[in-house]
Each structure stands twice: as C-alpha cells, then as structure tokens.
C-alpha cells in the first residue's frame, strides 16, 4: 500500500468535517483480488458450463439435430440428450416415455396409443416428424427446416455434436426411466465406447435414479456422474449428509432451480460436488443462480447464459437510496471491471430518456458503483435501468422522490434489520412481505450482514479481509426478496455492530475501516452521508417527516468505559447536530433512526452496548450511555419537541414503548422496535426504568418488520408490526400533537 496515497486521503477528510479518528486507515489499494478464497458461494470449477437443455430448445424442436446445431452456434459447452430405448433396444434422444408430445405419432400410428417408445421399433420411429409440432406450438419461431426433423438415435446425436462442435462441445446424457428400460446403462456404455467418447473429458452422465448412476459408476468409473434432484427427493433430508452420502459416485448434483439456496450450495461445494440447476431460462434467473456460485446451468436459452459468461454483467441486482425531493443514489454491481450505464426516466418505457449516467466498476470496490442522480422532480416515481456497456443484460428498478418541502403528503415506510446472523441465511421471507406493501422507502436499521458469524460466504469467521466483508454482502444479495425490494424501493441503510464485529466501538476497533469500506461499497449512500465517513444525516418527506439517521458506531467510546458526562456514543458533533435538527424541524413527525435501543439492555453486563446500563438486571452496572441519552431526552422535554419517534431493531424482538422521561404523566417520545428479519429470535425482557418507559406491546420469537405511516391530514401516525408473511401482529395509531 503506497504511503503517499494514504496521506492524500487523510488531508482531504480533515477539510470536510472533523474526521472520525480512524479515517486515514480506510485507503483502498490497487489491483486487489475480490474473492475471499473461502466462500462456498462461488464455482468450484474454472469454467461455468452452458448446458443446452434438450438442445437450444427455446428456439427449435427439442432433441433434433437442428436444435443441437443452434445450441453449438450459441456457444453451448454441453448439449444435453434425454435417452429412451426402442422396442428393439436402440437408444434414442427423446424426453418423454411416449412419442405423443414431440412427434406426429398420433397421426402416423393412430391405433398405437399411448405411443410408448418401448412399443415402437427404431424403423417405425424413424418415420416420425419430430419438428412440425414445434412450428404449430410456436408459430412465431416456426421454420420450414423443422418440418420432418427425425428423432435422432444416440449414435447420430453423438456424431453430429462431435463433428459440428469440432470436438469442443461436451455431451451430457440422462438415463430417463431406467426402470422402464432394463439394460439401458449397458447399451449406453457400449455406444459411448463405439463412438469413442467414453474417455472424453467433457462427457457427463446424469439421472434421477441413484441405482442407474451407481450401475454406470461400476461400468465407467472415470465418467462424471450428476445426481438429479426434484424437491420431493430432498424432502426431509439433511442436504449436507445426503451429499456426503452420494459423493462416492457423484461428481455433482442437478437440482430443480428453486432448490438452490446458500445452504444447498454450501452442502454441495463442501462435498466438492458441482451444482447444475435446471431449467433456467430467464437472464434474471440465470444471473441470480450465478450469484449463488453454481458451476453450470441447464437452459433452453444457451445464448442468454453465454452472453452473461462472456462479458461482465449486472450480477447482484440494483438499488437506489438516500432519496431527497430532487436526488437519489443508484447502486449496481458487475461481476468484473466494466462501465455500468444507468438510464433514469419518469417514463417506464424510457421513451423520454431523462438522464444517462455511466460509472466504471473497478476491483477496488468489488465492482460496485454508487451513482448520484440530481435534478429530479419531487414526489415522482422514477424508473431506471442498468446494464454494463458490454452486455445486453439489463436490470430495471424504480424509486420515489420525496415530496416537495413544506408539502404534507402521507408517508409509508418499512423498517427492519438483523439479517444473516446466528445461522440464519437467505432465503428470508420478510423482504417479500415488505415489498408487497409498496412502501415509499425502506429503512434498513443495521446488522445488514453478520460479518462475524459463520455462513457459507465466510465459513471461517470472523471476516477480516475486505473480501470477506464483500462476500457477506453478496451472500445476502442472493436473497430474491431482498433484491426485488431494493430494485423497487429507495433504501436508507445504516450500520450497526455486525457490519464490523459484535458490539464494536469504531475508534478502538481495528476492523472498522475495512468493515466501513465494504458497507459503503454495498449500499447506495449519498456523498453527503459518506464523506468523512460521518454516515449520519437528515432526510425529509416534505414537511410530514424529518428523519435523522444516526451513526451509533463511528464515534463511540468503548462499551466498557464507565458512563459519565464525558462518555459518548454519538460524539460531540453528532450530538449537537441531532439537537439542532430536532429543534429546527417543523415537520409533523421527527423520526430518529438509531441502530441501538434506549431502554432494552443489550451487550453484556459491564459492557452495555445500547443506551441503557440495565441496572434493573445488573445493579450498579457502571457502563451504558445513559448520560448522553439523558442530554437528548432532556433536550426533547425542555424544548417541548413534539411527535418524536425513535426507530430501531437490534434486540431481535418487537416492542413499542412510550416514554414519560420527566414523570409528568405525559408521553414525551416513543420508541418503535422491530426485528429480526433473519437472525436468532429472542423474547422480550424487562426494560431499564431510567427514562420512564412503558411497554405498549412486546412480542418475541418470530421474524418480523415494522411499518410506520404518517397521515398529516388526519394528524395521525400509525405503527404496525408484521410477521414474515405480512400478517399484522400489532397496530396502533398515535394522535399527533400540534
Ligand atoms: O436433466 C436435467 C433436467 O433436464 C431434468 O429435467 O425433465 O428436463 O429432463 P427434465
Ligand atoms: Ca434431462
């Protein structure tokens, strides 16, 4: 790392605001590797395989030589044959056990129902037309050359691919219904020997039948075997044990695509098994499975997968964040160095192209980009789309700008946190339930990753290198619910402790710079908020809500320090800023987004991590940050600041609390707590009485999130706690004070 570079960065931050103590350490270095060398969410093979499912069967009649030809023209690495056996023992390439769906057997042999392959000789089958059905079913793809396409025998199919593929295209064959065709394995091996491909490096045999694969293993011990799985086959099984069990004959697994989640990938790759999901046809799905680290994909559209594999593409979705009434930050990641182009328009068809922005994705930021967009209209839904300049693959998103200042428009936001800890990993259900509410924005209240917990991305925690932290963010972005929420909802992300390590204090934790760097790389954070790493800032929703986002980690004294007038969590500057914002705000509601709770004791005794010292559970606990919170609480009471709501997560249960800090019988402010989204579920305990809390609702042991709505016209704010299915567990309307 070059000294000069560090010096340059240090002086920069000092000029902006008084930098956080460790700012100088966050300088990125050149030419870094982005992979953390331990995640199981990455391919265990150097070349991810394009497997043409039944040929290029989205464009031509499956299992015909023309469909195989197109697959090879589309740069498929493998052409897949499903095998059936004729009455006279010939292996043919056909998916179904009957000839009905993909040939004209019903017309040619009307009295031979149900047209099972095993009831026909090869000669009879060779008279069939295996192409015209495709023209009839897909008239827009119909071609004259498809008429009369014969059913190929296995030999013909092998020879054709070998010739046309110049020996470079692999063969991938499935013993279909081996119980219907006794001896098909022997027949298969004979043909592979006769056609001289048995020892081909790129030969793979697959089956749903373990018995068939074990038979093939004895006859051809060196051939790669793939065990196919449906969801029903894995029901009730512990995938890690199941994969350990089959790894004595299988080189990989072929799961139905919905089975592929981080746990599945981890179990397979920990057992050195390739993962080839089927059948994946949209580029969104193809990209999503690549982000999980699959080793190949069965697809009817080999061209779409080849396009993704040959050029950098948008690999982990898009996001927008830190929106105001005239600006937003757009985020995307490519899977390699690339220029990423965003188009932004209030017209979903992009006919009226408003704004085009291009940014270079480089390894220093794990190929992520954060692009500010300004000059937007207030209270407007904007549509945007992103693609790498070199790839056709485009990902769409949308966000809503805040209403103009001084307007009083209703607002609905969702908040949640604690995602990816204590063994909980994607898929999470909660994000879908959030999306379903079409909120104006999403407040991600910290613990957006658990860098210090064991997961497939970091099987040997804690995260130490920036690559480890990046791997954690990528792991959570494999969650389809999170990706789609981020794509269609502006997000305000704040960090808490597990973005770095449990209960950390920024200035005294050596991992802080690295954790912060990755946090800023993976969230759409405005320059305003990220400059000098202050991370705190105010955002408004017209005059309905002012939201003060805090940074509860960057300036914090160590948890073990005895509380007192000089102990701080926020740092003097941020504390002054918060008081000023609260005082100046004339919004109906003041939201304070804090990543730690006020009166729920967290952390551990003598090292409390939230504001409370928890002396109701550990009398005379000298720690906590109550002195500082008292300054905030007294300020609110003395200045008579109305309608203040502290919003947080962190405690892994949901609770709604009202505070009468000066014991005058009147509520001074509220605290709204939700979570977890995906971490250990805990049950509520007792509250630290210092600031006069009264619990209005408390529930634990379930995944949940919060909804906060403000209806200025009716002078009302409403809080809801919903579970991961979106079911309301608690709802309360607050009358807003004038
Ligand atoms: O062989 C992988 C996949 O093709 C399995 O399903 O029914 O398309 O053969 P199917
Ligand atoms: Ca198949």
Query: How would a textbook summarize the main sheet?
Result: 9 strands, mixed
The helix content is 10-25%
Strand content: 15-25%
Number of helices: 20
**Bound ligands, named by name, code or SMILES:** SN-glycerol-3-phosphate, calcium ion
Low-confidence sequence ranges: 1-29
| SS-based class | alpha/beta
Quote the distance from N terminus to C terminus.
56 Å
Radius of gyration: 30 Å
Kindly state the number of beta strands. 31
Approximate shape: elongated
Mean pLDDT: 95
Description:
With 738 residues, the protein is an alpha/beta fold. Helix content is 24%, strand content 24%. It is built from 20 helices and 31 strands. The strands form five sheets. Strands 1, 2, 3, 4, 5, 6, 7, 8 and 9 form a nine-stranded mixed beta sheet that branches. Strands 14-11-10-19-18-17-29-30-31 form a nine-stranded mixed beta sheet. Helix 10 (239-246) runs parallel beside helix 11 (262-270), helix 15 (466-476) packs parallel to helix 17 and helix 19 (572-584) packs parallel to helix 20. The model is unreliable at 1-29 (pLDDT under 50). Calcium ion is lined by residues 80, 82, 174.
């Amino acid at each position: 790392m070059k000294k000069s570079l560090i010096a340059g960065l240090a002086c920069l931050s000092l000029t902006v605001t008084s930098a956080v103590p460790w700012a100088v350490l966050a300088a990125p270095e050149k030419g870094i590797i982005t992979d953390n060398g331990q995640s199981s969410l990455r391919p265990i093979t150097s070349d991810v395989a394009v497997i043409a499912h039944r040929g290029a069967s989205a464009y031509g009649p499956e299992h015909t030589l023309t469909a195989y030809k197109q697959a090879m023209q589309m740069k498929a690495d493998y052409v897949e044959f499903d095998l059936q056996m004729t009455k006279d023992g010939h292996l043919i390439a056909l998916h179904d056990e009957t000839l009905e769906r993909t040939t004209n057997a019903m017309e040619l042999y009307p009295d031979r129902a149900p047209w099972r392959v095993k009831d026909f000789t090869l000669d009879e089958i060779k008279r069939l037309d295996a192409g015209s059905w495709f023209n009839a079913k897909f008239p827009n793809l119909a071609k004259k050359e498809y008429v009369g396409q014969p059913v190929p025998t296995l030999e013909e199919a092998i020879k054709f691919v070998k010739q046309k593929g110049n020996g470079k295209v692999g063969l991938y064959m499935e013993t279909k219904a081996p119980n219907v065709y006794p001896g098909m394995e022997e027949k298969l091996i004979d043909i592979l020997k006769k056609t001289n491909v048995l020892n081909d490096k790129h030969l793979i045999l697959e089956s749903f039948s373990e018995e068939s694969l074990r038979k093939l293993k004895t006859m051809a011990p060196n051939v790669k075997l793939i065990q196919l799985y449906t969801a029903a086959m894995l029901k009730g099984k512990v995938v890690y044990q199941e994969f350990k069990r089959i790894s004595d004959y299988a080189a990989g697994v072929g799961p139905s695509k919905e089975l592929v989640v981080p746990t599945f990938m981890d179990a397979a790759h920990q057992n050195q098994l390739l993962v080839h999901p089927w059948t994946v046809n949209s580029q969104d799905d193809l990209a999503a499975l690549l982000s999980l680290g699959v080793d190949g994909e069965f697809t009817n559209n080999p061209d779409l997968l080849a396009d993704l594999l040959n050029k950098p593409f948008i690999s982990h979705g898009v996001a927008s964040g830190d929106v105001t009434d005239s600006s937003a930050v757009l985020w995307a990641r490519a899977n390699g160095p690339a220029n990423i182009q965003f188009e932004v328009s209030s017209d979903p068809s992009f006919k009226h192209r408003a704004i085009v922005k291009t940014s270079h994705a480089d390894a220093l930021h794990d190929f992520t980009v954060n692009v500010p967009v300004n000059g937007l209209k207030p209270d407007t839904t904007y549509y945007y789309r992103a693609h790498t300049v070199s790839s056709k693959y485009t990902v769409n998103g949308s966000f809503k700008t805040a209403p103009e200042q001084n307007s009083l428009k209703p607002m609905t936001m969702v908040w949640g946190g604690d995602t990816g800890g204590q063994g909980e990993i994607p898929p999470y259900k909660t994000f879908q339930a959030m999306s379903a509410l079409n909120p104006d924005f999403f407040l991600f209240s910290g613990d957006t990753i658990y860098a210090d917990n064991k997961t497939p991305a970091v099987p040997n925690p804690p995260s130490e290198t920036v690559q480890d932290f990046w791997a954690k963010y990528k792991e959570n972005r494999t969650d389809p619910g999170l990706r789609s929420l981020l794509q269609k909802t502006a997000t305000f992300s704040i960090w808490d402790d597990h973005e770095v390590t449990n209960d950390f204090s920024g200035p005294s934790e050596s991992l802080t710079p690295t954790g912060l760097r990755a946090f800023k790389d993976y969230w759409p954070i405005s320059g305003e908020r990220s400059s000098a790493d202050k991370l705190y800032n105010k955002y408004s929703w017209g005059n309905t809500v002012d939201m003060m986002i805090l940074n509860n980690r960057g300036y914090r004294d160590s948890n073990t320090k005895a509380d007192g007038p000089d102990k701080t969590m926020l740092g003097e500057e941020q504390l002054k800023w918060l008081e000023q914002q609260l005082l100046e705000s004339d919004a109906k509601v003041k939201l304070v987004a804090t990543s730690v709770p006020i009166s729920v004791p967290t952390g551990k005794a003598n090292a409390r991590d939230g504001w409370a010292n928890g002396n109701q559970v550990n009398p005379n606990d000298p720690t906590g940050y109550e002195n500082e919170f008292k300054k905030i609480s007294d300020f609110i009471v003395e200045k008579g600041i109305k309608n203040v709501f502290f919003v947080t997560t962190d405690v892994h249960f949901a609770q709604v609390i009202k505070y009468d800090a000066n014991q005058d019988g009147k509520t001074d402010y509220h605290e709204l707590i939700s979570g977890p989204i995906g971490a250990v579920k805990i049950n509520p305990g007792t509250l630290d009485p210092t600031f006069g809390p009264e619990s209005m609702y408390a529930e634990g042991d379930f995944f949940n999130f919060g909804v906060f709505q403000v209806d200025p016209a009716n002078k009302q704010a409403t809080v809801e706690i919903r579970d991961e299915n979106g079911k309301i567990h608690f709802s309360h309307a607050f009358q807003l004070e004038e």
